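Let us walk through a complete example step by step. Step one is to write down the protein sequence. Step two is to encode the small molecule, zinc ion, as a SMILES string so that its atoms and bonds are unambiguous. Step three, shown after the inputs, is the structure prediction itself.
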Amino acid sequence: MAVIRDPLRGRERPAAPSHTDDQIIERLLEVGAESTVALTGAGMSTASGIPDYRGPDASPRSPMTYQAFLAGPLQRSRYWARSWVGWDRIEWAEPNDGHRALAALRLAGTITQNVDGLDRLAGVRDIVELHGRLDRVLCLTCRRTYSRQWLQEELTALNPDFLDRIDVDPREIEVAPDGDAELEQTRDFRVRDCPQCDGLLKPDVVFFGETVDTRVVERARDLVEAADALVVLGSSLAVMSGLRFVRAAAKLGALVVIDTDGPTRGDDLADMRSLSRTADFLTAWERAVRDSE
Ligand SMILES: [Zn+2]
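Step three: the predicted structure of the complex.
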């Protein structure tokens, strides 16, 4: 079982491309889309306006851990206040050319570490959302799920004066890929419990310190074990839950391609390495597939 840990910062060596994108795409055409699996990360969504945890503009931050979320009402107020402020940024984000090209490629499967749902919205099929999805909330007691948008409206009704009280403009607040806004005054924020059983509501995403559901891991592993190529797109592979699939693919002798615009923890395992923007790489790859048909 995979435990999500905090990203390791500042331990990477500089990355360098090993081949041109044309050379990599030629190799991927030989393998074929039907035998290729993608593993996507935050770099896929930066062109949709969702910042990367580790990109050049990212500020150091400490994401909420599962243990902290459960620890008490102050921590939950903090989580939901920040999520409430950050939600619009996630809700309004739209898939970019990279997501659309990925959908058009019709790969054997896509494992995403993103919780923004943009791959799914773009029509990517056979997708495993490894870290869950932000557009849903889950009751920790009765396990019912609710839409995040419903909760947003409930939180807005419960906290009508909150923004006036903290005196900040939500448009000027930095928001992380998990919708967490940089906000400190969260003490008085009122949270909503499960309407059915008064249990704690949690976003249906895997927090740092939390275990990825075994069935989800198995679905992802099945995809990787059946594939002849694994293409990492926009991920620094900072968390083990993603890196393990790259290790598995390399061990099985599959072609491992990494396209991420900075160093990754999987660089030693990559057969081919590109630093291109994911949207550029994916649109070129998708065009090449169409031209070859
Ligand atoms: Zn419940």
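Step four is interpretation. The pocket of zinc ion is lined by residues 139, 141-142, 144, 194, 196-197, 199 (CB under 6 Å).
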